[in-house]
Amino acid sequence: MRLIVCKNYDEISKKASELVKNIMLENPNPIFGFATGSSPIGMYENLIEMNKKGEIDFSNAVSVNLDEYMDIDEDNPQSYHYFMHDNLFSHINIKKENVHIPSASSDTFEEDIKKYNEVLDSVGTRDVQILGIGRNGHIAFNEPNDKLNLRTNIVDLKKSTIEANSRFFEKEEDVPTKAISMGLEDIFNSKMIILLASGAKKHDAIQNLINSPYLDLQNPSTTLHLHNNFVLIVDEDAYNG
Ligand code: GLP
């Protein structure tokens, strides 16, 4: 693991976007794993800016996203489809057909899981996987559990996740209780993994991730120690509490 402690949110965003830019300068056909949440928004803003200035080009880029709530319309402003288009894809020159975001409904979830695993298989190894972290240590929507999914699956969201994510909804009851999420094997199928964390609310999860002497399935992010190019970028509040 490579740990980078930055002063604040702007600095983590700058650092992460520079790493992504370097990857893009070396490889004109980059494959991305993108994430939702407030943590990568600043990085996305920088990438949009760089793309507008012509410093980076997404015309041959491919992207796969980590997760999506179950039974949510893609045009619902709380959906991860909406988030990704609003915060990144509609502002850069990526081709629509190269953007992949999972979706699942209660009626078709088995087919939806299969379909997304097929997408992941055809896209193959990513150049960089961007991650945030839940307050309980979840990555994508892989929640603390006795067993962690290796591949895409439907997951039950923990109460603490529903509470944390309710800040984006009108009321807590509106937060979906299930999601479709990429599993650990697919998250790991990337040449580099960058996890971004900011703010004191992430302190416990980050300290547990850094210091855990074993794989702690109650903090799924600890599995990232097994990846040989894992970069953890945190701000001082997330690091020091
Ligand atoms: C959600 C997402 C995760 C994300 C996490 C943290 O639960 N499924 O992929 O990492 O939130 O979000 P934030 O960056 O807003 O703290």
Tell me the number of helical segments per DSSP (H or I, 4 or more residues long): 8
Uncertain segments? none
How many strands, which pairing sense, and closed or not: the largest β-sheet?
7 strands, parallel
Give the tally of β-strands.
10
**Structural class designation:** alpha/beta
Strand order of the largest sheet: 1-10-9-6-2-3-5
Mean pLDDT: 97
Strand content: 15-25%
**Measured distance between first and last alpha carbons:** 20 Å
Rg is 17 Å
Cofactors, ions, other ligands? 2-amino-2-deoxy-6-O-phosphono-alpha-D-glucopyranose
Shape: globular
Helical residue percent? Answer: 25-40%
H-E order: EHEHEEHEHEEHEHEHEH
Overview of the structural elements:
- The chain is of the alpha/beta class and 241 residues long.
- Helix content is 33%, strand content 17%.
- It contains 8 helices and 10 strands.
- The protein has helices at residues 9-26, 41-52, 80-87, 109-123, 159-165, 184-188, 203-211, 236-240, and strands at 2-6, 31-34, 62-65, 67-69, 99-100, 128-131, 153-156, 178-181, 193-197, 230-235.
- Strands 1-10-9-6-2-3-5 form a 7-stranded parallel sheet, sandwiched between helices. A 3-stranded antiparallel sheet has the order 4-8-7, with no helix packed on it.
- Strand 2, helix 2 (41-52) and strand 3 form a beta-alpha-beta unit.
- Helix 1 crosses helix 2.
- The chain is globular and about 45 Å long.
- Bound molecules: 2-amino-2-deoxy-6-O-phosphono-alpha-D-glucopyranose.
